[in-house]
Design a protein that fits this description.
Blueprint (H helix, E strand, L loop, with lengths): L2 H8 L2 H12 L11 H14 L3 E6 L13 E8 L2 E11 L18 E2 L2 E3 L3 H21 L4 E9 L10 H6 L10 E4 L7 E6 L1 E10 L14 H22 L15 E9 L17 E10 L5 H18 L5 E9 L2 E2 L5 H14 L4 E5 L5 H6 L6 E3 L14 E3 H20 L4
Parallel strand pairs: 3-6, 3-7, 7-15, 8-14
Antiparallel strand pairs: 1-2, 2-6, 4-5, 5-16, 8-13, 9-11, 9-12, 10-11
Helix pairs in contact: 1-4, 1-10, 2-4, 4-10, 6-7, 8-10
The structure holds zinc ion.
Length: about 425
């Protein structure tokens, strides 16, 4: 065990707390993408002082990017004394809106009872701060380390990551030979390693009809009734099938260890917003439904889509005047990093040293920026590991435990030691 390294992390506890609180004080709320530039510059300035080369990359043209709300990302790199692999810590700097129900100011960085409170404390400014402290402690105790360390603070994870990791990955920031191992300190709990996520298919289904006066519906064709037939078929034929599909992926919570589909929204008939309070007088000629289908490593996306389009095609054959369109909104394949991948083994060693037990290996029910690292960067040695309790993310009075941050910073520091120096001692 590298006592000096662990003590160097512990000695920085106050700094870790202060850094977390400082990061929370930037109200990087997304949407719209507030305060990205000052937050990225703050992080960059700190790393520059440590000797990192820093770059600020704005994702011009990304969704939401404007001069008022620029999508600014920071990437910092420190090259060691000799060649070797590069370990990259990636954190998103954006947070979701505070919402109601807070008993503390969500952007004040309040510290009390061994916790730091604030929007983003858990998801994921506490994880970002822990990774910075882990890196600082490692660099101080092993100044001659080989290889390179990178830390990035990126935009827009909460809205899909297009102005953040996806943009950088397209530019080669998440590919070999620049980067070899990626750790994303998302709040998955300090003793768990998140290997990936289920797949996603979002689509919009539209049924068509024909407009007519509401008093004579027989003169038109009701698109909402057609959608009713779609929903009924989903209930009878699709949901029971999905519910029976279990995966070997260790998804948490356990309910997500099977295929799921959410009906996100349904819109039919004349829009109500231009005549608030007044009902639509017509037979609706269009009805749109958005589905969010989450699928498993054992399923392929063609089959996933075929289950839905099969039902729609059957309705088209059997139901009078039924017509539809379907549009893909998003698709992400399921991902699971192997347990014997170098980054998994290195962080597992850290967890065993700090907690004296084997880590839990989990899969996230939803996606996060790892999807872009894999899909666009073609880099598969990537995990999510960080402090913070997943259930607290996005909720009022979000907090991160100080002891949890210190322990997970120790795990990250040991992981770095294993990946760069090949040793825990
Ligand atoms: Zn997050």
């Amino acid at each position: 065990m590298d006592e000096r390294l662990l003590k160097a992390v512990e000695d920085r506890t106050d700094d870790l707390v202060a850094l977390t609180a400082d990061l929370i004080r930037f109200p990087t709320v997304n949407p719209p993408g507030e305060a990205y530039r000052p937050c990225a510059e703050f992080l960059g300035a700190r790393l520059k002082k440590l000797g990192f080369e820093t770059e600020f990359i704005r994702a011009e043209g990304a969704p939401g990017d404007s001069d008022r709300y620029p999508r600014v990302n920071v990437v910092a790199r420190f090259d060691g004394r000799s060649p070797g692999p590069c370990v990259h810590f990636n954190s998103h700097i954006d947070v979701v809106e505070a919402g109601d129900g807070w008993t503390v100011d969500p952007f004040a960085g309040v510290v009390k009872d061994g916790r730091v409170y604030g929007r983003g404390a858990c998801d994921m400014k506490g994880g970002l701060a822990a990774s910075v402290i882990a890196v600082e402690a490692f660099m101080r105790t092993h100044p001659d380390f080989p290889g390179a360390i990178e830390i990035s603070g990126t935009a827009d994870e909460e809205s899909g990551g297009f102005g953040g990791v996806a943009h950088l990955a397209r530019l080669g920031y998440f590919s070999k030979p620049k980067v070899d191992h990626v750790i994303i300190p998302e709040p998955l709990n300090k003793d768990r390693i998140c290997l990936g996520h289920r797949g996603v298919w979002w689509a919009e289904i539209e049924t068509k009809g024909e407009i007519a006066h509401g008093s004579m519906p027989f003169l038109g064709d009701n698109a909402v009734r057609h959608m009713g037939a779609v929903l009924q078929a989903f209930e009878e034929e699709l949901f029971p099938v999905l519910d029976r599909k279990m995966t070997r992926m260790p998804v948490v919570p356990e309910g997500a260890r099977r295929s799921t589909m959410n009906i996100n929204s349904i819109h039919g008939g004349q829009t109500e917003d231009f005549r608030p309070g007044l009902p639509s007088p017509n037979v609706p000629d269009s009805c749109r439904l958005t589905i969010d289908r989450r699928f498993l490593l054992e399923e392929d996306i063609a089959t996933v889509k075929g289950e839905v389009t099969g039902i729609l095609e059957r309705l088209k054959r059997e139901r009078r005047k039924f017509d539809y369109e379907i549009r893909d909104l998003m698709e992400v394949l399921p991902l699971m990093t192997e347990r014997d991948a170098p980054v998994v083994k290195a962080v597992a060693k850290g967890i065993m040293e700090v907690f004296d037990r084997e880590p839990d290996y989990v899969i996230s029910p939803g996606t996060y920026d790892q999807k872009h690292v894999a899909r666009l960067g073609h880099l598969y040695d990537c995990i999510a590991y960080g402090p913070g309790i997943l259930d607290l993310a996005h909720r009022p009075d979000e907090w991160v435990g100080i002891a949890d941050m210190v322990e997970s910073a120790k795990v990250m520091a040991i992981g770095l030691n294993v990946l760069l120096r090949g040793t825990t001692g």
